[in-house]
Every structure is written in structure tokens, then in C-alpha cells.
Amino acid sequence: MPVCHPHTINLRLVNTIFVNPPGRIPPQRNNPPNPFCHLPFQIPRLVHPPLAGRASEQPPISPAGSPTPLLPGEGTYGLVYHARSKETGGRYAIKQFKSGREGDGVSPTAIREIMLLREMSHPNIVKLESAHINHSEPSLWLAFEYAEYDLYEMIKFHRDNKDNRRDNPFGLMPQYIVKTVMWHLLNGLSYMHQHWVVHRDLKPSNVLVMGEDPAVAPSQHGCVKIADFGLARIFQAPARPLSDNGVVVTIWYRAPELLLGARHYTRAVDVWAAGCIFAELLTLKPLFQGQERKTPGNVLQADQLDKIFRVLGHPGIKTWPELEVLPHWVDNTDNVRVRRPEWGGTGLHSAILEAMRAIDLMSRMLDYNPSSRATAEEALRHEWFRTEPKPGPNVFRMQVGSWNGNGHGPGGSCWA
């Protein structure tokens, strides 16, 4: 694949309003103009990245229109703003990528996210509306459709208010919401995987939920969107090494093959992360909440493995033959086989009080062996989605007869 320079990215892959001179974003000069005035958006406030839907704890914007210093929770690659279009008044989430050093140009992370999102179109994947070069900073701005909520905030809301939920004596998230969220999430994953894209960083804060703003099309109300494709990659069959691209997935949602040092991995890592999100929706707390070792490189995350083993039991060669070649299983100073006895595991039933069908689906998504782990498409065909309450197009509004019976999605234009 030919190398794409910043100016070719602007011309060929992005709906750019302002095109920089070939090869470089121009450096910042003395007394630059207001960085927001050249953009086709009004920028009312900064939001905590990557959660574009947190209405509280909004840092203020100074009178000059530039952002205040970042608070804890800063995004990995830049700032995220809530903006309105100057032309239409529509709301957007604006992700800002700043150039690290003079002459660096557009970051590879931004280019990767643009390339993938410009090629994908699905109701359950966040839509990239446009991209803009801001010469005065310099920086690249990506405009996304605005989602008011994310799963992190939804889980936190239900956890904080569970004692006041008279309609739900167990204090948990209503089953309709859980089922609809998982249906949307798996539909988005299925589309990505069919097009050879692996996300690699699925977690509740990267799964957005559209609100019911009158400015948003009714067909999009309550629709779940997979977001933040900065770590996403194209995978191939047979699998090629992806570990050289760096450590992937927040540790609580990291698949066991990654924890054990696999160099070749597949879309199965996304399904494992989705299974962890599934459990968190049901219990309102992370299923495998390990303590991460903050050491450079792909080191053995022993505590995270312990958390998984205590629930699922110890993996074995009979059910997962590839264990014999995983680095942290075979050769390390804290050998998994020696240090950890062959626990039977307490089982998902002890960790999650839920119907058998839900536990069965979750166990298939959390299969140790990535080769036998359920795919997103297989998970969508599971019987759990065909039992009441059935999933629908809007997470917030249960509808009678929302299942259309064709196996490809509930009725409703979120899938139109």
C-alpha cells in the first residue's frame, strides 16, 4: 500500500474545508487568531474525552474561546468538544488531534481513524461527518455525529441509583436495555469483522448511545454506536502479527490470548471484550477487575489472569491447544502453570445472577480458545435474543413486537 502524506490524505480521503500546503501542517506563528473562528462550528464547551455525553463536570471555555487546561480523564490523542454547526445548528462531537512537533504533520492515529471510518457505513458505528485542518494551531479536527451518552455513564447511573429503583427490586439495569445494547453492539461488530476490521479497544466508554434530541432523526434515537477507532486495524486470513502495533485493549477487557503474549490474534479479541461488557451491563461492575502492571512492553499481567481464572477456571491444553506456544504460558519468570494451581473456577453463575440463556451466550463469548469463541454473527443467532423482552431499535423505549423474525435485526429504522 503506498505511503499517504498528509496532503494526499486531505485530498483523497477527507471532506476537507481547508487544505494545507503539500506535506506539512504550517507551524504556529506569533499571536495566532482564535483557533475556533476558522472552523464551521461553534464550540460551546470541552467535554471529557472520550465521553462526548457527560453533561456534568464540563470544564469552562475562556472568553477568548480556547479550552482551559485539561482535567484528569484527558483522552489519549487529544481533546473532544461539543459543537454546533454554524450553518445548520446540528450538534457534533469534535475530536482534536494536535501536531506533536513542528513539521510532524497529521498523526498516524488520526489518519487510521479517518481511513477506516470513511470506508464503513453502519447504523451501529459512529459516523465521521467531516474533517478540517486548523492552520493556526496547527491541528486536525474530526467532526462526528453527537451521542449524548455512553455505556460507562449508563452503567454508572444505574449503579448510583439502584437503591432508588422501586420498579427494579434487584437494582440492576432493565433486561430490555441490556439486550438491546448487546444486539446493537454485536451488529456493529459483525459488520466490522465482515469487512476485516478489528477494533482492539472495546470498553464501555467507547460505546456511545444516541439521545432523543429533537434535532436527531427519530430513527437514531437510542441507537448504540461503536466509537474511537484509533487503535483499530485491518486483519487478514491467515492471521498476521498484530502485536507489533502495540498493547491493545484496556486490561479489564483484554482477551486471554493477549494476556498470554499472543502475537497473532483475530477478531475474537473484540468478542471477548463484548462479553466483558455484557457481564458489566448485568452486574453494574467490571467482571475481571485486575490490577495492571505499569511496565513497558507486553509483560505478564498476573493479577488480571488471576481474576479471570477465579471465575472461569484454569485453561487447559485439551480445550485450547495453542496454549503451548503462548509466551507467557511457556516461558516467563512468573510461569502461569507453576504459580497458579488448576482452579476449577467459581463459574459465571456465581458472578452473575441471570437467566441460563444469558449465561450460555456469555460463556460462548468468553471461551478461552479464540478458535471456538463465538463470532459476533453466531452470538446474534443465540436464543437469548428471541426471548422476551426482545431487543428493539431504541435502547430507552421498549416496543411491542420489536423482533421481526428474520434473524438480522429487530424492526425499526436504526437498521434501515
UniProtKB/TrEMBL annotation:
Gene Ontology molecular function: any one: ATP binding
Stretches assigned to the Protein kinase domain: 66-385
Keywords for the protein's UniProt record, in alphabetical order: ATP-binding, Kinase, Nucleotide-binding, Serine/threonine-protein kinase, Transferase
Keyword Repeat included in the entry's annotation: no
Catalytically driven reaction(s): [DNA-directed RNA polymerase] + ATP = phospho-[DNA-directed RNA polymerase] + ADP + H(+); L-seryl-[protein] + ATP = O-phospho-L-seryl-[protein] + ADP + H(+); L-threonyl-[protein] + ATP = O-phospho-L-threonyl-[protein] + ADP + H(+)
Keyword Nucleotide-binding applies: yes
PANTHER family hit by this protein: CELL DIVISION PROTEIN KINASE, CYCLIN-DEPENDENT KINASE 8-RELATED
Family: Belongs to the protein kinase superfamily. CMGC Ser/Thr protein kinase family. CDC2/CDKX subfamily.
Protein's name in the database: Cyclin dependent kinase
Organism: Volvox carteri f. nagariensis
